[in-house]
């Protein structure tokens, strides 16, 4: 028990230390720019109201989701959900320090929000393309963006350079590959220029449409550079030249208060290339290294934010503290604080996740878990109440999943005499080949649950984004206390299981 108390105390102290550091960061920001995060967010709420016409067409629609790009730069989002009332109305109030782009899937794949603004959205379930916006300045900006996207054929979030990244990488010389990229970029540059000549648009749209093209181009370009060099072993352009180009682009498009999802994705490629160009060794901290590599303080802040964002994904608050305390940019500090609050809330109050899963809807909480009235999880969780329950999610076509299944089998043997049970959710079809895969790993058929197509969708929306292998950890009371790719056999999982066996709340 003494060891348990020490671990809990350490976790609590870590939490308090993070909060203290965040407070000091706010103070530092206030002294520097005379512009505190607290003052900017207190007046930075964007109010969104909405109404759904013909809601009876899809009567099971219980909520509307706004997706905010994750600060890690990874292909994941922070989901902000609000319930849809019986009369088809809904309402959001989103805290923003700076303008930013979001999406409201599946109705709007791009929505630009302005702090302190109001926006009204009307949807028509008989025609999902019929989306009407009204309200403040956000309407004018979004109108310009939609007009630009539709006129030029450019889409923002997941821009795809067709023809580059498949056969071209294997069969073309580097000069040919570069030309294909340049031709596509120039094509969109020309379309954008023609659009601007024929339309009077907002300044935000002028800057960001150019930034999107250039940052998307280099994000994809660096990925292709790596693949050609490290996978296909082809000659590529000199790394120094490519790094110089990225520095020029970063300096140009990270020098304003206007940012979008593409900025975070670009900085991942930028950091990756820089770490190879200027080695990040064990003898130097990432903080010192980034300060030496980044050409401006703003670029360094983005690099730190991405690292802190990844730490939150792993629920590593010590690393989050280490990186976030070096961020001075007000907008990034605000984004970090929002993600921290969501992550910490789920860690300290794991019952919230189970409440969402089983259909009980806590109000006024942004939690990256879907609101679902279905309780198919009860098929797995409820019968095992009284035991600590580890659930593995995998598929036949996923090579890492097979490794985790083997490792989990060893854990099962370790806890065979304890109140611990293990289940496996398979996202592949229930057929002899799939069953044989589990049997070959020593897993009995009774421990494997094959998800239907509807249940696959439920998993994908509830534990968004659904990357596999993934795990779910449940305490004796049937409460989901943790979930994610980190729930796999390891010393950390062993510590968590042992804590839950002693009925202690899981904090880290």
Question: Could you please describe the fold and organization of this structure?
Answer:
By secondary structure, this protein is α+β, with helices and mostly antiparallel strands. It has helices at 2-33, 37-42, 137-152, 167-171, 174-198, 203-230, 239-253, 261-277, 286-293, 297-313, 317-324, 330-348, 351-357, 378-381, 399-414, 432-440, 453-462, 491-501; strands at residues 45-53, 63-69, 77-83, 89-95, 100-104, 108-113, 118-124, 131-135, 388-394, 420-426, 448-450, 470-474, 480-484. It folds into four domains: 2-36; 40-135, Immunoglobulin-like (Sandwich), CATH 2.60.40.1120; 167-345, no CATH class; 357-501, Glutaredoxin (3-Layer(aba) Sandwich). It is built from 18 helices and 13 strands. The strands form three sheets. Strands 11-10-9-12-13 form a five-stranded mixed sheet. Strands 4-1-7-8 form a four-stranded mixed sheet, with helices on one face. A four-stranded antiparallel sheet has the order 3-2-5-6. Strand 2 and strand 3 form a beta hairpin. Helix 1 packs parallel to helix 11, helix 6 (203-230) packs parallel to helix 8 and helix 10 packs antiparallel against helix 11. The radius of gyration is 24 Å and the shape is globular.
How does the SSE layout of this entry go?
Blueprint: H1 2-33, H2 37-42, E1 45-53, E2 63-69, E3 77-83, E4 89-95, E5 100-104, E6 108-113, E7 118-124, E8 131-135, H3 137-152, H4 167-171, H5 174-198, H6 203-230, H7 239-253, H8 261-277, H9 286-293, H10 297-313, H11 317-324, H12 330-348, H13 351-357, H14 378-381, E9 388-394, H15 399-414, E10 420-426, H16 432-440, E11 448-450, H17 453-462, E12 470-474, E13 480-484, H18 491-501
Parallel strand pairs: 1-7, 9-10, 10-11
Antiparallel strand pairs: 1-4, 2-3, 2-5, 5-6, 7-8, 9-12, 12-13
